[in-house]
Amino acid sequence: MSALPRRIIKETQRLMAEPVPGISAVPDESNARYFHVIVTGPEDSPFEGGLFKLELFLPEDYPMSAPKVRFITKIYHPNIDKLGRICLDILKDKWSPALQIRTVLLSIQALLSAPNPDDPLANDVAELWKINESEAIRNAKEWTRKYAMEN
Amino acid sequence: MAEKCQSKVFVESDSEQIDCAVCLQSCVHPTVLPCGHIFCYLCVKGLRRTTKMCAMCRHEFPDDLIENPTLLRPIESSLDAGFEDGHQWFYEGRNGWWQYDERTSKDIEEAFKRGNTTCDVSIAGKIYIVDFVEMEQKQKQNVLRSRRIKRDLSTIPKKGISGIRAAASSQTTEELETRLAMLNLFEPRDE
Ligand SMILES: [Zn+2]
Ligand SMILES: [Zn+2]
Questions:
Q1: Quick check: A93 contacting B, CB < 8 Å?
Q2: Do A61 and B50 touch (CB under 8 A)?
Q3: Chain B positions with Cβ closer than 8 Å to A
Q4: Residue B8 pLDDT more than 60?
Q5: A117: left (phi over 0), alpha (psi -120 to 50) or beta
Q6: Cα separations (Å) of A8 from A30, A100, B52?
């Protein structure tokens, strides 16, 4: 029997009872530390209309260390690389145990609304975002349509 | 970009229940950091081991806070408290027995009463396996690191509770009241 720390139980219950608008996070049936996440592309962003799948995993010493989060759906974004890894300070050195799954997912949603090409992960995407923003946005919309709008 | 945590210290007038932002439960042995934020003693221990800063305002805190914690309430009242049969759970330290904190103790007792052979407990952000057959506690990620445990009368001689020395908590009421007054007067520093 592997008991789940109460904090994880509490966070999960709250995520179910009061879901964050535009975000769904459901724990896996066989592993309560693994969440299937869907983030809706924010309005007025190139990702609008898209449904983005992510995976979120709570490591053994969560909340002392940050959740591990990755995009599964392909996305054209300067802070998300080909493998779906996200460049976000709170997932790395700016993590604090007072943050929660909820706050992490909200921050990721905010990152979709406000890409930050000056702090890039996917270098070629960030490069284009800086020199030709309208083309980059066109690409992002195209990828959203292609990869995030199918069933 | 990231949502900043702007919660502040809140000490209710009767200081009965303080929520801990680390374990999301009411504080067990509330411990005050120099910045004024309050967490469970064991949650502070977890912070010291990992991020080394306050979970709310990111201020660093000195290591000796673990040895000499500023507790909101003395631990005396918890020291000899036991279950209905007057027993309590203990783990062995370098030179004596320590009483488990109330929350962990309750979890262990429940699993023991159900007749489980082991149970997992989360202490200071780490998971431990409590083994009722071997009567020991092992780190889940390093089972070679084990400590003996026992269920014994709550009144046996002991070092303290979960790392808080019995002697360390003998602050006078006056000192505590001054502390509380200060907390209500000053907001924690923010960056
Ligand atoms: Zn706590
Ligand atoms: Zn603080």
A1: no
A2: yes
A3: 1-3, 5, 7, 21-25, 43, 46-47, 49-51, 53, 55-56, 58, 107, 116, 118-122, 125-127, 140-141
A4: no
A5: alpha
A6: 15, 9, 22
Number of Cα atoms under 13 Å in the Cβ half of residue B111: 21
Q: Is the dihedral of CA B160, B162, B165, B170 positive or negative?
A: negative
CA distance A32 to A53: 18
A76 is catalytic: no
Reference A69, options A48, A85, A53, A81; nearest CA is A85
**pLDDT one-digit tens code per residue, A45-67:** 999 999 999 999 999 999 999 99
Going by pLDDT thresholds of 50, 70 and 90, the confidence category of residue A33 is: very high
pLDDT band at A83 (very low <50, low <70, confident <90, very high): very high
ipTM field: 0.85
- Give the C-alpha separation, A91 to A100, whole Å: 11
Active-site pick, A87, A91, A111, A122: A87
User: Could you give the CA distance from residue A111 to residue A46 in angstroms, rounded to a whole number?
Assistant: 12
B-chain residues near A91 (CB < 8 A): none
Beta strands in chain B (DSSP E): 30-32, 38-40, 87-93, 96-99, 118-123, 126-131, 136-139, 142-153, 160-161, 164-165
**pLDDT digits 0-9 by tens, B17-69:** 899 999 999 999 999 999 999 999 999 999 999 989 999 999 999 988 999 99
* Mean pLDDT, residues B162-182 taken together: 65
Which are the contacts of A148, defined by CB distance < 8 A and separation ≥ 6? A41, A47, A49, A50, A51, A52, A73, A74, A75
Report the residue of A4, A7, A77 to disrupt the B interface, i.e. the one with the largest count of B CBs within 10 Å.
A7
pLDDT category, B16, cuts 50, 70, 90? low
Question: A21 CA distance to ligand 1 centroid (A)?
Answer: 28
CB contact under 8 A, A65 and B50: yes
